[in-house]
Amino acid sequence: MQAAPLHPLRTHARVLTASLVGTAIEFYDFYIYATAAALVIGPLFFPAQSVAAQQLLSFMTFGLAFFARPVGAIAFGHFGDRVGRKSTLVASLMLMGGSTVLIAFLPTYAMAGPLAPALLCLLRFGQGFGLGGEWGGAALLAVENAPPGWAARFGSAPQLGAPVGFLAANGLFLLLGLTLTEADFAAWGWRIPFLASAALVAVGLWVRLNIGETAAFAAARDSAPPPRVPLGALLTGHAPAVLAGIAGVVACFAIFYLATTFALSFGTKTLGYPRDTFLAVQLAANLFLALGILAAGWWADRTSAARVLATGAVLTALVGVVFGSGLGSGALGLVWLTLAAALFVMGLTYGPLGAWLQTLYPVEVRYTGISVAFNLGGIIGGALAPFAAQALADRGGTAYVGLFLTLAGAVTFAGVRLGRARH
């Protein structure tokens, strides 16, 4: 006897929960490493040199996962377009979550010498590889199941995982800072957030195992066999759309990692703010990221995802003009205002991405197209952001840090224009 089908409202709630939970875990996993990279990874996993050298090496391990993401995007995109969205999402979450948990058990450089950073880099690659198939699948899960007129709002559900994951990660590090001494935090406290990821991954797997395949993928599979090599079909038939998608995601990555990873390192090490104080400032500013994502989803369904993304790109360029000066002002209130404004603008560039990217590619190569574009754009906007900002700050002072944002906004605006030309 077959079970009764779920009511549409329950189905939609389950899909939105699966999209949100998965990306919340994704950002929690990635941001706990970003926070650890800004605070303890350098001295724990690299030989004693200058503090600046240790910090740069720490940021390089942070960036390594971004270079693994396109590899994961190709691999998971292949199976997502040929086998299905659901099973691919489950596999990507297991790899990403497993790599995160194992970081908690790594030996430090003092314990294992050069083996320690080697193992760290291996697990960072695993994190990035798994994450390469995560966001694209979660976005498709939401958008391809959205009722008419709700594509952007459903598509913004995975993006809300960013502030949720950021809140959980930052809040846990803040709690640890309030309860542990600096010595205990450096010795073992930093491992706790990585261990806690195991519980979150278990919840995410349970939710995703209880959803079905998307209607759009099922219809495409019934009408024609999937391409044997989705990446080949994507590049031969939709190369300009891939370029447009890559450029379109640069701004959101650049804002996020400058306002979080770089700002935390700069605020605590250069400006001298206590770690707990600056984490609290970032925690409060994070609320504006959620507001920006919600506003973007609502606005995009009433106008278009492309219009909202283009507006966010222009505002990103403008934020870049004042970001460095605001961050380096020395006034904590102005620092918070700078971060809050930047993260709200990030919401306008991040919120419409799920709805915008899926318009660039047909269903049969959509998982690959979205994943490749999102993750290659992440290398430009995310992996380079903290490194470039640190180099700009060292050469010209904090006023130059925002130049990276201005450039990122221009690149994303060009991507939106190219996407419109394709249509």
From TrEMBL:
Membrane spanning residue stretches: 30-50, 56-77, 89-110, 160-181, 188-207, 241-266, 278-299, 305-324, 331-353, 365-387, 399-418
UniProt entry keywords in alphabetical sequence: Cell membrane, Membrane, Transmembrane, Transmembrane helix, Transport
Domain Major facilitator superfamily (MFS) profile: 15-423
UniProt keyword annotation of RNA-binding present: no
Topological relation to the membrane, as annotated: Multi-pass membrane protein
Gene Ontology CC: plasma membrane
Keyword Transcription attributed: no
Official protein name in the record: MFS transporter
UniProt lineage: Bacteria, Pseudomonadati, Pseudomonadota, Alphaproteobacteria, Sphingomonadales
